[in-house]
Design a protein that fits this description.
By secondary structure, the chain is α+β, with helices and mostly antiparallel strands. The chain is about 30% helix and about 30% strand. It has a six-stranded antiparallel beta barrel with strand order 14-15-16-17-18-19. The protein has a four-stranded antiparallel sheet with strand order 5-6-1-7. Strands 8-11-9-10 form a four-stranded antiparallel sheet, with helices on both faces.
């Protein structure tokens, strides 16, 4: 089974003490490892298995005294009387892993989750930015150590091999799958490095197949028949014969500009200035594509590992650095009190998430090439400061039912219609249309005629004028074939107020008694 050469480079990270590291950071601070572990009892996390409490995770101090995950709490305390047993919190552990994944975005945007205690980083083509793969690996492990996280790491050409080395031979940087050292490493790894269920690992060990080298030369069909197809799949994924994708946890940005700082920044003004510089560096790339940015994200990497993400959108494609900086200035002003700078941000990254075509425009005598952008610029500023859900515009839909014919959507220049053409109505529509029709009690002279009097919101109204009916049939593909039709009337009461009412259902067609509803008010 010869390995297949490839150009993918995968950095696998494993966190063997993730739950206890989370607790230690909460108790002793982020940099507790670099300062030295304080005099404190060993830590272990327990969970209830059946009717017994068993250890789910232990820290290095407890492991050095012979305590292992899977021990009962009573057994563990017999081994280590001072053991500090804390109830496990799996949700908090996964949130902590997500925070570490955010931190890992500084190396590559292609960060995949390997739950419950690991990450995959696709570093293909970006290791040279950090001085090479070995320098990147050392930098990653050093930073994690100073952040109070115990980590194991390895780099290889496949996720399977990188995962195996990170957990069973940490620190390796395997060149590519065609190198000679790869043929020596894989056979020496234990079968547990194949990411198989524990029952399969135990079954292989019982028959004397304890190393991967024992499997490489064995007939494949008997192995699959006895141990299942997953064994061969994992073996092929490790050697590169079968492709294994790494799914990024976040959408990958179309364009990115980044600035690593020698001195961390804290002030909002410094962040705005850096945002303008990054936007200016992105402009040539957008111009080559003939495009402008519609959605952007500013990523601020804090010294202590936390990541702040600020996203803005534009009503029309933009690539003017001043305009982009202004949008982020508005957003930073709105969320500045919510941002905790701590000891400062050491890396600032600007990402273009969505871009659209933007044709070049001729400048006028005032020097502006975008004379008609006043409304879009105002909407962008308001959206950046107030949020996209606060700046809305009407959007038409192809529907005869009034409450479905239009809706409010985030402002987009030129986006006045929804999917399909809007339906125009010859009859007048009220100035104010209720989101949901309100029931009224109405009396008509004839069954299918307009109302003579009606009661709405505890007020009685006598109708002096009425126009209609305007019949609107139900949309059977949405409401069903038995949905009743509506007869709309424009009525005026004796005080001059005008209303838009409808009767739901027809006497000669529907079994149930028709009902009356108020749907809108005219000016």
């Amino acid at each position: 089974m010869p390995p297949v050469p490839g150009s993918r480079r995968i950095l696998a990270l494993a966190f063997p003490h993730l739950p206890t590291d989370r607790i230690a950071r909460m108790r002793w601070g982020v940099s507790w490892r670099s300062r030295g572990r304080p005099e404190a009892p060993p830590i272990a996390c327990s969970e209830r298995v059946g009717s017994a409490l068993r250890l789910l995770a232990v820290d290095e101090h407890a492991r050095s005294q012979g305590v292992r995950p899977g021990h009962g709490v009573a057994e563990a305390r017999a081994i280590c009387p001072l053991l500090d047993v804390v109830p496990s919190d799996l949700a908090a552990d996964q949130r902590f892993l997500d925070a570490v994944a955010d931190w890992a975005d500084r190396y590559t945007p292609l960060v995949g989750m390997d739950r419950p205690d690991g990450l995959f980083l696709d570093i293909s083509g970006c290791a040279h930015l950090f001085g090479g793969e070995r320098a990147l690996l050392d930098d990653c492990l050093t930073r994690l150590f100073h952040l109070g996280v115990d980590a194991r790491a390895a780099i290889a050409g496949t996720p399977g091999l990188a995962w195996a080395l990170a957990r069973h031979d940490s620190g390796h940087v395997v060149s590519d799958m065609g190198a000679d050292d790869c043929g020596d490493i894989i056979p020496s790894l234990p079968v547990a490095a194949l990411r198989l269920p524990p029952a399969d690992v135990a079954a292989l060990t019982r028959v004397g197949l304890s190393r991967i080298g024992d499997l490489i030369g064995a007939p494949r069909k008997p192995l699959a028949r006895r141990f299942g197809p997953l064994l061969l799949v994992r073996l092929d994924q490790m050697t590169g014969i079968e492709e294994e994708p790494v799914s990024p946890r976040r959408p990958v940005a179309a364009l990115t500009a980044e600035r690593r700082l020698t001195e961390p920044v804290v002030s909002r003004e410094a962040i705005e200035a850096l945002t303008g510089q990054l936007a200016d560096s992105l402009r040539p790339s957008l111009e080559r594509r003939g495009a402008g940015a519609r959605e952007l994200e500013l990523q601020l990497f804090r010294v202590d590992g936390a990541v702040v993400r600020i996203r803005v959108g534009a009503a029309r494609p933009l690539r003017d650095p001043a305009r982009l900086r202004g949008l982020f200035a508005e957003r930073l002003a709105a969320v500045h009190d919510e941002i905790e700078a701590g000891f400062g941000f050491e890396t600032v990254r600007l990402c273009v998430l969505v871009f659209e075509p933007l044709d070049a425009a001729q400048a006028d005598f005032s020097g502006s090439a975008e004379a008609d952008e006043t409304l879009a610029a105002l909407a962008d500023r308001l959206t950046a400061r107030l949020g996209a859900d606060r700046v809305l515009m009407p959007q038409h839909h192809a529907s005869h039912v009034p409450e479905r014919a239009s809706s409010l959507a985030p402002f987009v220049e030129g986006g006045t219609s929804g999917p399909g053409p809007a339906i125009t109505h010859a009859a007048a529509r009220p100035v104010r249309l209720f989101r949901h029709p309100e029931p009224v009690t109405a009396v008509a002279e004839v069954p299918e005629g307009p109302p003579v009097t009606f009661r709405w919101r505890r007020s009685h109204h006598r109708v002096t004028r009425a126009e209609g009916p305007e019949r609107i049939a139900a949309e059977w593909w949405i409401d069903g074939e038995d949905a009743p039709a509506r007869d709309y009337y424009r009525v005026e009461d004796d005080s001059g107020r005008r209303f838009w009412l409808f009767r739901e259902g027809l006497y000669e067609r529907d079994v149930a008694t028709p009902r009356w509803f108020m749907h809108g008010l005219f000016g």
